[in-house]
Specification:
Helix content is about 40%, strand content about 15%. It has about 325 residues and is an alpha/beta fold. The protein has two domains: about 220 residues, Rossmann fold (3-Layer(aba) Sandwich), CATH 3.40.50; about 100 residues, no CATH class.
């Protein structure tokens, strides 16, 4: 279905976590987590994007704090989790089991799983692995980590829409390596030249920060230009993407039958640059039972007005809140 852009809902008021901590998940990794809302209310987990993005204060505000007990966490290697930007024992399947460890910490038999962008990939992988642990799925900015999706963003596609930004991205890569930009950046981001690593991280991160919204967002650009954020973001993204996120070709759609009984909602911006709408449409075709919302006048970011409106209405609805 296609949504009207108004009237629009927006964030719940700012709030602080009622609990924070670090969880040792093995392999030398410690995950930062926080719980927000009302302890003992409807359990939910928020899965951030990237890979390597991290959580922020506004992510807490996607849920009615009176109705939800939400756990948010920084995935391995990013945000406040340690060690920072570390690639060791850092795969999709490590993260899936981390979510299970956090569910046990939360003491939830089942929980609503909310994931956007890479978080939608991880949410699908988790739900298809542990379908009995998921009460509902909220997926935004669908990404299934297939070669055509990677090529669209890092070879030919978005380069035609943002040529001036693309020129900056490829500038530090010699001509003979530009046919495989992902691998060229991965080599520099995992190499020994620290100055080149940081420069590559900034350029990689800004490419995404400046193309994920329909209209320019100075806040996104500032975050993605931050050296600490950019290093984790770029190293983890290229690490995951050169390995196709440790997924078999077409795996997430192939296994969607495992989750078709779970109530779900798919939200996707019409003009999403990193994640073309056709892949959300493909998920909708494989999972017709899920609610499907195409948001007009929106790109990829969760906080674009139409997308945010639909996400808030969705979390309200799954908590049984009557729309006003």
């Amino acid at each position: 279905m296609t949504d009207s852009p108004s009237p629009l809902r927006t964030f719940y008021p700012p709030l602080e976590p009622y609990e924070t901590g670090m969880l040792d998940v093995g392999d030398g990794h410690q995950l930062y987590y926080e719980r927000c809302g009302t302890k003992g209310a409807k359990p939910a987990v928020f899965l951030h994007g990237g890979p390597g993005g991290g959580i922020g204060p506004d992510h807490r505000r996607l849920f009615d704090p009176a109705l939800y007990d939400v756990l948010l966490f920084d995935q391995r290697g990013c945000g406040r989790s340690t060690p920072h930007a570390d690639l060791n024992a850092n795969t999709t399947w490590h993260l899936v089991e981390d979510i299970e460890r956090l569910r046990a910490l939360h003491q939830a038999e089942q929980w609503l799983v909310f994931g956007g962008s890479w978080g939608s990939t991880l949410a699908l992988a988790y739900a298809e692995t542990h379908p009995d642990k998921v009460s509902e799925l909220v997926l935004r900015g669908i990404y299934t980590c297939t070669p055509p999706e990677l090529d669209w963003y890092y070879r030919f596609g978005v380069s035609e829409m943002h040529p001036e930004k693309w020129a900056r991205l490829v500038e530090i890569i010699p001509d003979d390596e530009r046919s495989n930009l992902l691998h060229a950046y991965h080599r520099r981001l995992t190499g020994d030249d620290r100055a080149l690593q940081l420069e590559a991280a900034r350029r990689w991160s800004l490419w995404e920060g400046e193309t994920i919204t329909l209209l320019p967002s100075p806040a996104n650009q500032e975050q993605h230009d931050d050296a600490e954020f950019a290093l984790a973001f770029a190293r983890l993204e290229t690490h995951y993407f050169v390995n196709q996120c440790w997924l078999q070709p077409g795996q997430l759609l192939r296994d969607v039958g495992k989750i078709r009984h779970i109530p779900g909602t798919i939200v996707h911006g019409r003009y999403d640059m990193p994640c073309p709408l056709k892949y959300a449409w493909g998920l909708h075709q494989a999972w017709p039972e899920a609610d499907f919302h195409i948001i007009e006048g929106a790109g990829h970011a969760y906080n674009e007005p139409g997308i945010l409106d639909r996400l808030i209405r969705t979390t309200d609805g799954y908590a049984g809140k009557v729309a006003v």
